[in-house]
C-alpha cells in the first residue's frame, strides 16, 4: 500500500450510519460493495469494510494500492473518532511504513471530504506521516 486516504460519509450527526449502511449505498451506485476498507463510527468503533487485499473504490484514479478510511459524519467528528483514527493510522503505518496519508480532497480537488485539513491534524497530534 502506498496511500492511506481519509474520507467522511457526509452523514447527519447521530443518524447511526455504519459500514453496513455505506455498503448498501455503494451497491445502489453500482459498486461491488462498500468502497472503504475501514469505517469509524461516532463512538470510535472501527468497523471493517472492504478487505485490505481488495482494491478500494473511494478515490477516482487512486484506488489501487490505497487504504480508504471513512469517518461517519459530515464536518464535526467526535474525540473518540479522532482517537480511533490515530490508533488505526498507527497500525496501518506499522504495516505499510511507506504509505503517505491524505485527505480525499487532496487527491480530488472537486471534493471537500473529509472536511478538515488532514496534514494540519497530523502535525497537531505529532503523527509522523
Structural notes for this entry:
The structure is a single chain. With 129 residues, this protein is an alpha/beta fold. It has a single domain (3-124), classed as Peptidoglycan recognition protein-like (Lysozyme-like, 3-Layer(aba) Sandwich). 29% of the residues lie in helices and 17% in strands. The protein contains four helices and five strands; from the N terminus they run βαβββαβαα. Strands 3-2-4-1-5 form a five-stranded mixed sheet. A hairpin with a 5-residue loop joins β2 and β3. The radius of gyration is 13 Å and the shape is globular. The chain starts with a strand and ends in a 5-residue tail after the last helix.
CATH class: Alpha Beta
Number of DSSP strand runs: 5
The run of helices and strands is EHEEEHEHH
- Count of separate DSSP helical elements: 4
SSE topology sketch:
Blueprint: E1 3-8, H1 19-28, E2 38-40, E3 46-48, E4 66-71, H2 79-95, E5 100-103, H3 104-107, H4 118-124
Parallel strand pairs: 1-4, 1-5, 2-4
Antiparallel strand pairs: 2-3
Name the features:
129 residues, Lysozyme-like, five-stranded mixed β-sheet, globular
Q: Nutshell version of this structure?
A:
The protein has 129 residues and is an alpha/beta fold.
Amino acid at each position: 500500500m502506498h496511500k492511506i486516504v481519509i474520507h467522511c460519509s457526509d452523514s447527519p450527526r447521530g443518524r447511526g450510519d455504519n459500514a453496513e449502511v455505506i455498503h448498501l449505498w455503494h451497491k445502489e451506485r453500482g459498486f461491488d460493495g462498500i468502497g472503504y476498507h475501514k469505517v469509524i463510527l461516532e463512538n470510535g468503533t472501527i468497523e471493517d469494510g472492504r478487505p485490505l487485499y481488495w482494491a478500494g473504490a473511494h478515490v477516482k484514479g487512486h484506488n489501487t494500492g490505497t487504504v480508504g478510511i471513512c469517518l461517519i459524519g459530515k464536518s464535526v467528528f467526535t474525540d473518540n473518532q479522532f482517537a480511533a483514527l490515530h490508533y488505526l493510522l498507527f497500525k496501518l503505518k506499522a504495516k505499510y511504513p511507506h504509505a503517505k496519508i491524505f485527505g480525499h480532497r487532496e487527491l480530488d480537488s472537486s471534493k471537500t471530504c473529509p472536511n478538515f485539513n488532514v496534514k494540519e491534524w497530523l502535525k497537531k497530534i505529532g503523527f509522523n506521516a
